[in-house]
């Protein structure tokens, strides 16, 4: 089988433009992948475009080999475009064997996957609003909620803003009760000293974790924070190399990792899961892109025994999302059921995708006050 064409589709989701790629083969099978950048869009469209000459004529039935060829072409650097091409190749491989990818990954350890909701607090940075929104999510069946209560804090946080963050967490905990997990996202915001101070204040609310309290590349900083507070510290979404997972876990202090399959590529993501298994650590993949990645992560998570919980933004998706993407599993009673259709099980409706073009304001500026609304600045 040969790849004969490669197309890119940008879909203007309001808080993050989604970038999809589609591979076409000489046997009529197509494959879908995602190269969403989040805080930038066009570099990844260009990334895919420049990879084109390395991809046309290749056999998509060897995704790991194809990905390595592209990584070598970039002097041993991975990229979102390379990952998206690899994802689409896996999709074609699954379709060619008429098998869902969880089957090809070794079968299922889980029939359903517990989910935590993210992106559910689209409004003012106000404890009452967070509490009310959290209660609504619990009423829908969610048993775990993630949120960043820290506003636009960068390195430091003012006393007033820190106190507000604590009151937001307190209000959410009171609204949802002890049986619902709350997960604190810190978005790389703090110095080690600030992270330890804030982390200690969070202990009374028993969060399931605090995520990237210091810069994602800072393994020693995360280890120090983790040793200093009684809240589990998690990271991994920004890691691009297998070695980073091994180096982190070798300390035996942090035991939950968050690989990002959309940037690592499915093959490398599965290898990070094996590294985690070697250290008896748990896996909760990062995901903040389109619902295509919900499906991809569901296949990956279902195939490992040490799955912890899956991230999900889909409840707040625009209604047209479900016309652009078909076959995506939806959260019901706080869990996902992994798709059984061949490949990833998701198809892109090209005509519908074209109805929602790139938006120059479709970005989440996490270090600007008011980002929680997830609306362009002009509409706030
Ligand atoms: Mg994060």
Helix/strand layout:
Layout: E1 3-11, E2 18-25, E3 30-34, H1 42-55, H2 63-73, H3 80-96, H4 101-104, E4 112-117, H5 127-139, E5 144-147, H6 159-176, E6 181-185, H7 192-202, E7 209-211, H8 219-228, E8 233-234, H9 242-249, E9 256-257, H10 261-264, H11 266-278, E10 282-283, H12 291-302, E11 310-312, H13 321-324, E12 325-326, E13 335-337, E14 347-348, H14 350-354
Parallel strand pairs: 4-11, 5-6, 6-7, 7-8, 9-10
Antiparallel strand pairs: 1-2, 2-3, 4-13, 12-14
Helix pairs in contact: 1-3, 2-3, 5-6, 7-8, 9-11
This protein binds magnesium ion (MG).
Descriptive notes:
The structure is a single chain. The protein has 380 residues and is of the alpha/beta class. The chain has 14 helices and 14 strands. Helices cover 38% and strands 15% of the residues. The mean pLDDT is 96. The longest helix is centred in the middle third of the chain and has 18 residues, at 159-176. The strands form five sheets. The protein has a four-stranded parallel sheet. It has a domain at 103-343: TIM Barrel, CATH 3.20.20.120. Bound molecules: magnesium ion. Magnesium ion is lined by residues 185, 211-212, 237, 286.
